[in-house]
Design brief:
Layout: H1 9-34, E1 37-41, E2 44-47, H2 51-58, H3 60-90, H4 96-110, H5 113-123, H6 130-137, H7 148-176, H8 180-188, H9 193-221, H10 225-230, H11 242-252, H12 256-285
Antiparallel strand pairs: 1-2
Length: 286
């Protein structure tokens, strides 16, 4: 005889579903509605179908910003995931030193994004900033406000400083869950440090690393405040990402229809990348 299910638990989840629907689904549907209209003013709007989607996908500025965004997100993941993992593996697992290091790692994560941009804006100035003055004293001719490569590398260094701690904290939490008996067995078998990492730690860290990659991928793809404060998208368009291009269309130019189509495409790209990555990881584990 089948045991009857108690569906009363859904009553506890209902408030969360309502909040998500109100804060996420309703605005998304509003944006989708705007994306198929030509909005002249609040009282004059015309249905244009997929015209804005077609124009956005053929817009050279959109394509350039998209490729720039892909390069930045890929660079962030390539640097921050291994670096955070190395930091986590090098930390003591318990004791006062472990607690102190965890607090120090958490400090960059507590700083607001606009403050991070301001800190690095001052830190990297070529006339008074510690980084800028130091690099120029070494003969590098550093100036992130005039050189696109310097601006890109400065922005990348800022993001690595700000978010590598998140990966390190997640990896540290995963490493603390590895039973001590596993390390003892590996030591008895004469396993090297690489073998311990490959066959003992890494399998236990896969779930944590998936979360870390997804979080950093989504966040790096939506980055806005830091480059806006640090470089303003310049010099030229060297650090203008999709989010800044979207803000210019929606707020600066008030092109609500094209901006809505842009945001829907933006959202679908992020969703697609995350789905591809997560599906590939799940398929590999199966």
């Amino acid at each position: 005889m089948n045991k009857p299910y108690n569906n009363k638990a859904w009553l506890g989840v209902l408030p969360v579903l309502l909040i998500v629907a109100f804060s996420g689904v309703v605005p998304l549907m509003t944006v989708v509605n705007y994306s198929v209209q030509d909005i002249l003013d609040f009282n004059s709007r015309f249905f244009v179908g997929f015209q804005w989607y077609s124009e956005t996908l053929q817009d050279a500025r959109f394509i350039e910003a998209f490729l720039r965004q892909l390069g930045f997100s890929a660079s962030v993941l390539i640097i921050e995931i291994p670096l955070g993992l190395m930091l986590a593996r090098g930390m003591p697992r318990q004791g006062l030193s472990a607690s102190l290091l965890l607090v120090l790692l958490a400090i960059p994560l507590l700083i607001p994004w606009n403050v991070v941009g301001t800190i690095w804006q001052l830190y990297a100035r070529s006339d008074i900033g510690l980084l800028g003055v130091g690099l120029n004293a070494l003969g590098f001719g550093y100036n992130y406000t005039a050189d696109p490569i310097h601006a890109w590398l400065t922005l990348l260094a800022m993001d690595v400083w700000h978010w590598t701690s998140l990966v390190a904290l997640l990896a540290f939490a995963g490493l603390t869950s590895v039973p001590t008996a596993y390390y003892q067995a590996a030591e008895l078998d004469g396993a090297s440090k690489w073998q311990v990492f490959r066959y003992v730690e890494l399998p236990r860290l896969k779930g944590v690393l998936v979360i870390a990659v997804l979080l950093r991928l989504m966040d790096s793809f939506m980055i806005y405040t830091e480059p806006f404060v640090l470089t303003g998208g310049g010099p030229g368009n060297a650090t203008t990402f999709l989010s800044q291009h979207l803000a210019t269309m929606a707020v600066g130019q008030f092109d609500l229809g094209p901006a809505a189509a842009f945001s829907v495409i933006y959202f679908l790209f992020i969703l697609l990348f995350c789905w591809i990555f997560y599906s590939s990881v799940v398929r590999e584990n199966d």
